[in-house]
Amino acid sequence: MEFVASIIDTVFRPLKDYFARTVGYVMSCGDYIDLMIHEMSELKSKRDDVQRMVDASERQGMEATSQVTWWLERVSILEGRVEAITVDFQERQELPPEQAPGVKATYLLSKMADEARAEAVDLKDKAEFQKVADELVQLRFEEMPSAPVLGRDALLQELDTCVRDGDVGIVGIYGIAGVGKTALLNKFNNDFLINSPDINVAIYIEVGKDYNLDDIQRIIGDRLGVSWENRTPKERAGVLYRVLSKMNFVLLLDDVWEPLNFRMLGIPVPKHSSKSKIVLTTRIEDVCDRMDVRRKLKMECLPWEPAWELFREKVGDHLMTASPEIRLQAQALATKCGGLPLALITVGRAMASKRTAKEWKHAITVLKIAPWQLLGMELDVLEPLKKSYDNLPSDKLRLCLLYCSLFPEEFSISKDWIIGYCIGEGFIDDLYTEMDEIYNKGHDLLGDLKIASLLEKGEDEDHIKMHPMVRAMALWIASDFGEKETKWLVRAGVGLKEAPGAEKWSDAERISFMRNNILELYEKPECPLLKTLMLQGNPGLDKICDGFFQFMPSLRVLDLSHTSISELPSGISSLVQLQYLDLYNTNIRSLPRELGSLATLRFLLLSHMPLEMIPGGVICSLTMLQVLYMDLSYGDWKVGASGNGVEFQELENLRRLKALDITIQSPEALERLSRSYRLAGSTRNILIKTCSSMTKIELPTSHLWKNMTNLKRVWIASCSNLAEVIIDGSKETVGSNALPRAILQARAELVDEEQPILPTLHDIILQGLHKSKMQRQVAENKLRERLELSHPSPTSKSCISMAWQSSGG
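Structure for NB-ARC domain-containing protein, as requested:
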């Protein structure tokens, strides 16, 4: 009987349980919902405890174990299911009786609630973890694609020294686009850091112009093995900071365009004696300064030997067996790349299949006149350089850069020269009242272009240069990317014997034929859009046909300096927009009366020319004139009965004048100048010559000089009766027989430090003084046997040395 009962129980109990559960699902749905919610509440409490432990571990630079991560994900999924079941039940409770769900629907809802409860219980049982997080495991180094880096061994060694220097936390490498900064960084990563046992991890990041903070954090996190979905940038920064602070890291940041905020990224700045380092590359020098770089390394273009080796490598072995003529042309072409690796590689590849000398000669011509036409240049060289141009913060800077391309290749450009042009063109506004302030603004703009690696230092600090490839880029942009090649018609320093035909001038906005061998301009070009015309440095140019300027209504800048012209052509008055006129070092002896019609003229440069006649009324008609240079030029000013030329009053009527270089030939004119407060304050350089009635002069404390607060140089030449020059209030004197030519440096030692009268005065120059007895009472360090005059030369407009004849030449 017991056996039968056991069989019945075995068979019917499951049926009984199933029947009871089924009835219960239908009759007690609310009870199943309550049980589910209760178990889920306990599970969430357990989940919160585990999550707190995980968070605490991550703050210590650890990472949740895979088991814990799986468990947390399962709890999260279950939480969503429970929420959905609960909402469904609540919605059913709110329905009217006639819309109540059927038996099957109630059964299914209770069944889902019961299954969710059971899973919650199971997850609670699995929540007993021995550990919730492990130490991070990261790859120490990642090898980057790299190529041989020619000529950079010394720079690599210097970089390695900086990284090993405990006093240097951040190293910045800056230089022009295409110079090889990325290649250098890759080489350093692959060959140097991999052999550094003290470094726990090296992380290489290509930042780029449009970098994203989240992307940089993600790259660092991936290298460190950190995962952080659904975390804010601030939370990610905290995790990174804690992890990196516990290790020796090297962070390599390539192509940085603007300062990165290390705090927001979560990157600890290496402290003194730290083995952690940050190395960045950039085109923009002040990015280094604004990121507190401790050591800046400028990456220069390659010197000739490695540049030539790189070029030959890209051309191919056949160059070594080519004719001497081709090898000579190849060297000339490589030279035009200016040592820029990117250009050497591109041009070398473009010439790899060229086998004749004529092909090589043609390539040189193309690179000189229209470099964008050479295979690969536009895409591989000019486009990358253009990014630096596009990144400039203002159109004024961009125009200033383009303007520098008007000068010959590798030309050392006087900063004051280019600034004067830019003022004339309107690139540099004159919001400032003093000319020095306007020029300071110009120097600041040029400094910004140097900082951006778009200009280089010239022959000295007062000059700048443009790299040949930057110049190529500028000309490409100026020509509307090669679409309008005569828009900026630039043939500077290319050996022209004749100017291009007038038909090529018609669409031009800027023209530069400077430093050529042009002898005559005999056509009358029609140039309605032309704003700048640069003809300087054509020493044989002695004839410009009448009416030449008649059809240039927009011209603002005209430079005829260092030519042999002896007169201005008729029709000069047609230049109604002209702002800047340079006639320096020409053979002009007489100015035309129609020059007075140039009502907008702001710059007039008449220095170093045999000017003898200026029609009355011309000077005073130039009411907008701000800069007038007439040193070693016209000086026969009429003051009372003294002088036979232009009334000195005409100079005094120039109420906008801010800078004056002047030649004086009488004591009366000097006295008049000294009493004219505005003119005296504008005077920078003064030449006193052939003043036969002058017997004595006192420098610089005499009342003659008190208003000349911007005076830089005083030149005294061929004053035959000048017997004594008194230097400052100490009454030390120099007799005019002291030396045939001499400079007295008049800096601080010649000026009372407590009451400086002429704080800007640099030089007092004496020359051609022979008659009187020698009185040498000045210390040797104040007297030097040389004569230097600051004025542009035919090629560079830099300071030049001249020997004036005793006649006052």
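The chain is about 35% helix and 15% strand.
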